[in-house]
């Protein structure tokens, strides 16, 4: 049971943000390292994930997930190393992943952990392309958006952890894929990994750029952002187009109900469908997604990038960066080193 | 070939409306009664229909239908009597229906007409419950909204030609049905024909009334209006709810792109679906709908009302009244009398 520190740093929700979160909404405390009870496992964090959905949990309103209470530890997807296990499926030094905490250590029921196979790729990928964002992209594309060969597919937040995988899966299915992102570097990367075109929304008028890159309109729109970028895609929707709504990060920090152009009338004209989805509804099919994704990654058909911030102390900063949209790929925080 | 007048009155689109249409947008002219060519039929109008979709045709923008040209005759669903037929399926005095004109007489290809069976009900019903609005309600309910027993179904413009049939079909399927309409008289009528509850949107706050009448939220919303009424329904949408978008009459007279609360984020929370549809996509299944509808009407399971304006000269007024929302049921114009 070596390699255990004396204290456990963890981040609490200090206060609820109004509008964009700030450092004042977070507080780091030090406590004893917890001890696992029956069926429980003590995990030391190696990587933790920061994700846009967390903004919803900081709000005092029940959405699809319970809000976090002020003063409580904040939760995160974690890849970690087992320190001590009271569960038959795990032993010390195993690499595992689960919904744990913004902390050096956490205890949880063994049934809530999954083993990470280091042979499948870097263990950090279990928080990205081979984890929740990748699985979200997989089901959102294959089950909700359903691109077919020849379709024009537009993806917003295309250089993000979900969007980049969506675009590559859509391209594999024979669709023409256009990504929208916020930097020339992102555009270059997307075009290098199979996107047919990519648009930098900070570089001129998005509507004009979309008209140029989608001369035959848009058959599938995979929406990660909402707001004005989605407004620009809407007029280009084709007859029988499908919109998969995955996230609306442009609206998450709004303090009042955001307004925008009314969108439902267009759906009569197009006989279109808009569908929201949550990856947790696909829990029973997670293995199917991981099998496909890991094969694609191994074959080089799906590429991914990570942006790693060093140190648990910098986790809030990494989270706040999500709303600036300047980073490419999955945003991670490296909290500890592998002991082996 | 008797019973034919010397001249044919018909309405032209005199100018395109900006905002709400006015009488100045219409011009009546008198011409000779047309003569049918090969395969054509001359029809004398008995009833013509005015419908919200016509507002879209008056606009100079291609939507799901070609716009009407300024100076051209206006088109309408018509029930009429055959005066002269060069088509083997029709002979003089047959009652037929088709997409004809705002006119006393019109000529069209025989293949574009359907025979109206007077034994199935009043011939005017071929423009309402046994015509386009009824068939729209049928497919919008059974194929798009798909209410199941126990669902709470909300219908906007519930006392209209489409909404009143939607609600009654949904009630037949075992759902709990709540209608939204604009007059106490409409509320009373809806509650007398199988709606479990109805709300007068002019009588207090719609959101509050919806919360009271939908204590378990909304599983299906059939939207005929858009705008603020739809905004009031949105927060009550349940997990896996479906929205069928049939029309958006609240927006048809807008001169600028209307804005309102952004609606897509709610769909992630609910994993909900919004789908627009057009009845013309169901052309091949029209007979199925008419069989079901005429049985329901004959059995008293689906009731309907008509509001009849007398005289072709009053057709524009009848059309303009659609946007006031004061009438119950299908809006018709009686243009001529049956000759038999």
How would you describe this structure in keywords?
Rossmann fold, 340 residues, seven-stranded mixed β-sheet, alpha/beta, Quinone Oxidoreductase, Chain A, domain 1, homodimer
Can I get a quick summary?
The structure is a homodimer of 340-residue chains. With 340 residues, chain A is of the alpha/beta class.
Explain what you see.
Two copies of one chain form a homodimer. The longest helix of chain A is centred in the middle third of the chain and has 14 residues, at 132-145. Helices cover 24% and strands 28% of the residues of chain A. The first copy, chain A, has helices spanning 54-57, 132-145, 163-172, 184-192, 206-213, 227-233, 264-270, 286-299, 315-321, and strands spanning 7-13, 26-32, 40-49, 75-85, 95-101, 105-109, 114-115, 152-155, 176-181, 197-200, 218-223, 237-245, 259-261, 273-276, 306-310, 330-334. Chain A is globular, with a radius of gyration of 20 Å. The model of chain A has no long low-confidence stretch (mean pLDDT 94). The first copy, chain A, has two domains: 7-128 and 304-334, Medium-chain alcohol dehydrogenases, catalytic domain (Quinone Oxidoreductase, Chain A, domain 1, Alpha-Beta Complex), CATH 3.90.180; 132-280, Rossmann fold, CATH 3.40.50. With 340 residues, chain A is of the alpha/beta class. In chain A, the strands form three sheets. In chain A, strands 3, 4, 5, 6, 7, 15 and 16 form a seven-stranded mixed beta sheet that branches. In chain A, strands 10-9-8-11-12-14 form a six-stranded parallel beta sheet, with helices on both faces. A two-stranded antiparallel sheet of chain A has the order 1-2. The A-B interface holds A 63-64, 223, 226-227, 230, 243, 245-248, 251, 257-278, 281 and B 63-64, 223, 226-227, 230, 243, 245-248, 251, 257-278, 281.
